[in-house]
Amino acid sequence: MSRRCFSLTEFRNCCYRSAFAKSGLRSALTDLCDGTVVHCWVPMVRSPAKRDLLLIHGLGANALWQWADVLPHLAPYFNLFVPDILFFGNSSTSRPDRSDSFQARCLMRVMEAHSVRRLSLVGMSYGGFVGYSMAAQSMEDGAAVVVERVVICCAAVCIEERDLKEGMLSVNDLEEAVRILVPLTPARLRQLMGYTLHRHPPLGLIPSCLLSDFIDAMCADYVEEKRDLVRAILRNRKISEIPKLTQPTLIIWGEHDHVFPLELGHRLKRHIGDNAHLVVVKDTGHAFNMEKPKEFYSLLKTFLVDLLPPPASSSPDSESEACTTEKRASNDGNDPKTTASTNAPSQA
Predict the structure, then answer these.
(1) Contact 324, 269 (CB under 8 A)
(2) How much is the pTM?
């Protein structure tokens, strides 16, 4: 795709770089000496009085776009490390592995290279898959980096390959989902915005030139590699083979998530057990961090800074699950009240 003389997207990239610098971060490249290079924003001056926090972005854009607004709220409390996952920003690999566990191993090595031995992490969407895998790897004997607290944001870690075939997701064809999640046309990008935002502007009114500019700047490189990341998520994935985290874990989900439905958040909470708290952000979709940023910041502060669980009233696990089950029962033509009351507690 051709680059424009002036790019609004690239201009915003520059603004975000400035915001990262104002938050005390500098750009750093780590060569893992196996064909893999990882770019990460790291502290200009690392304070021994602060704990270390890793922020892992999702597939929508690079680290700049996903975390710039969050940094001012976290920088006073943490030494922040904000990487670009492989095939985003300046991170890349010649290795063929596209799994989230490979991404996690690379980030573990990057943290080790920066002398980080203990950290907490926040993973957004696909970054949540990577973060979960990092936390699981840190529980292994001899792990060089220990993950202490985990925040998983709208990442369907406990999804299985069969869920796509059984119609749990809004799109039941993997290749169609791949084309939406890694868009190359304004029409596809509008579809992606429609799925991620619960309260979105009239998408048809967004000029195609602006969407094309974003695609040229953010989506045109490593297209097949990024799409392979999506394909690898579901490949042979089974809940029985997913480790159960022992770290305190906060799961945050949008009430009306059309990428990964809320039911998958409850499934993850049940899989981890008592170490996990699920918070449902009302009246939001997959991009709840954009739709209700103040609530997102508050949850992060409570869990990561104050080291407290979220308020019980913020996590209506059984109520939300009953609502989800009721909706599915209605779609099946069954009596919603009966189905919700009998099946919700044990629903997988």
Answers:
(1) no
(2) 0.88
User: How large is the angle between the packed helices 262-272 and 317-332, nearest 10 degrees?
Assistant: 130
Handedness of CA 55, 59, 60, 61 (dihedral sign): positive
Structure tokens at 163: 């869920």
CA distance 56 to 66: 9
Instruction: Quote the longest CA-to-CA distance of the chain.
Output: 61
First to last CA, the chain: 44
CA distances from 187 to 68, 114, 205 (A): 27, 41, 12
Q: How far is CA 261 from CA 169, 251, 327, in A?
A: 7, 13, 12
Mean pLDDT of successive 10-residue segments in the chain (348 residues)?
73 96 97 98 97 96 95 97 97 98 98 98 98 97 96 97 91 94 96 93 91 95 97 94 97 97 97 96 97 97 93 48 39 35 31
CA nearest to 300, candidates 66, 121, 85, 126: 121
